[in-house]
Fold this protein.
Amino acid sequence: CFRAYNDWLAEYCAAHPKRLYGVALISLYDIEGAVLELARANEMGLIGAAIWADPPEQTTFLDQRQDAFWAEAQDRQMPVSLHTFTGRNREMNDLFLARYTCVTQRVQESIADIIFSRVLERFPRLRLVSAENDVGWVAYLLQRMDYGYLRKGPRHFERFESGLLPSEQFRRNVVCTFMQDAVGMRTLGFVGSEVLMWASDYPHDDSTWPESQRIIDEMFQGIADEDRRKIVYSNAVDLYRMDL
């Protein structure tokens, strides 16, 4: 079904190629198939890939068999999105709000797995997108990863050959999208505007539409115009190499 969706998406975006930019859905259950589908999607004009944010236990991001997929994404300059509520089947019917509240923890663990399993060391040009997971947690994750790396890493013989801290790899390779996150905006000075991208999430029920402009104005009060432009516009344009 992912192939059928990608076919439809490529055809849909082809109607207005300078306005519509599509991200392919890719399953990592079959790595060889994932590599082939990523290449096929790119050749159809799709500019990125979306995979699970919370992989099943038998196919975690620690598995180096996935290197073929990371290599293909890096070589094709296709950012890979880890979208909220994708991957492992977790029960959402009971205590829905508890699951909803804590879902961003899943992508934090996945990003930490990717960084500490040295994926970004092996593929330094790979770009990752935390999609619709908010950003208020980013500052603490960066601090926590660096603290653990510097204090605990030597004891467990976990060191990066590049000499980069986990936070430096994150800032180089990862961007994070959000719709409404006042806490995230208050940590902007620590995180950096290059790491963040605003998204409307239209037409889903978390969307800021039809109040997007008002919400942006409120969130970005007191924030420099240059940072605002990066977050709401140019970071996405640069990441996806949009021809606007």
